[in-house]
Amino acid sequence: MSGHRFLAVPTLVACLLATACGAEVAERSAEGPAPVTIDNCGQSITYPVPQRAVAYDMSSTEKMFALGLADRMRGIVMPSTADPAVARSPWAADYRAVETLSTDVLSREVVVDAEADWVLAGWNSGFSEARGITPQLLNEVGIQSYQHTESCFNYGDNPVRVPPLEALYTDLTQIGQIFRVEDRARQLVADLRERADVLRANRPEGTPARVFIYDSGTDQPFTSGGQGAPDALVSLAGGRNIFTELPQRWTTVSWEPVVDAAPEVIAVVDYGDQPVEDKIEFLKSSPSLASSPAVRNGHFYVLDYGQAVSGPRNIEGAEQFAKYLRSIGR
């Protein structure tokens, strides 16, 4: 496909169809593991095992950590707004062990200076036409990349739309294939799927609780639509994201539809340079929200950033949110 390198395998004898996600793995050569071919965002890409991997933001980094790949990483790029969430992470020790290359947004200069050979990030949440760091531009300087499947829905001429949880499972499986830790990835995905099934089986009957996911914003709120991980988290827990119909991961809306939806719970994402307590105080003081059941009853739930982005903690987040909903009778 355009913009991606295809590596010849002179000693190729046969190919095996992998267990998931359309990967084809060539037989091992005498030099070591042969490249693996993966379908990512509608493009077929052939990867040798990365030696100097860079991950951007918490979504990418914790997928790597959950697969036990901290010692295989060149570094991470982690905006300073995620510092509190990083400190709370179950992988805090891994964060300390892996070099932080930048506390700003992902840039081509950072990954080139780090001599990276592989970058993990999302489309428009890391990779960006406007900022001059795209898979094609990186490929031109000899750096391969992998995009979060969740973000493929608005990438390229033939977008690939995958539900958030299936996108997470796809990423973990394919990253496992790229780094040759397939068994570890298979076990992790099986555990997450099993826990998700338990949550689905235990969702209460009746109309789901109406949930507004609030990240930030005063004049206009920044929220999560149906393509984002929080939508799946809320649904698994037995609620319904009031913006589930929006075909976006994260987006800005107006306050009018929030008020009209009369949310019963407001899930406030603990992220950014504004303390979550200040976000909740703002919501409590908003005249337009004063009549909503969530504000009247004080039903504010703090959602950790590490659980709100596509990553291995999405199911944990759903489990904890389910307990909260049951505690308020929903």
Query: How many distinct beta strands?
Result: 16
Basic shape: globular
User: How much strand?
Assistant: 15-25%
Distance between the termini: 48 Å
Average pLDDT over all residues? 91
Q: Nutshell version of this structure?
A:
The chain is an alpha/beta fold and 330 residues long.
Question: Could you walk me through the main structural features you see in this protein, from its secondary elements to its overall organization?
Answer:
This protein has 13 helices and 16 strands. It is of the alpha/beta class. The chain has helices at residues 57-66, 83-88, 92-97, 108-113, 135-140, 164-178, 182-201, 229-237, 255-261, 276-285, 293-297, 305-308, 314-327, and strands at residues 15-17, 24-26, 36-40, 43-47, 53-56, 73-77, 100-102, 118-123, 126-127, 144-147, 209-214, 222-224, 239-241, 250-252, 265-270, 300-304. 46% of the residues are buried. The strands form 4 sheets. Strands 5, 6, 7, 8, 9 and 10 form a 6-stranded parallel sheet that branches. A 4-stranded antiparallel sheet has the order 1-2-3-4, with helices on one face. A 4-stranded parallel sheet has the order 13-11-15-16, sandwiched between helices. It is globular.
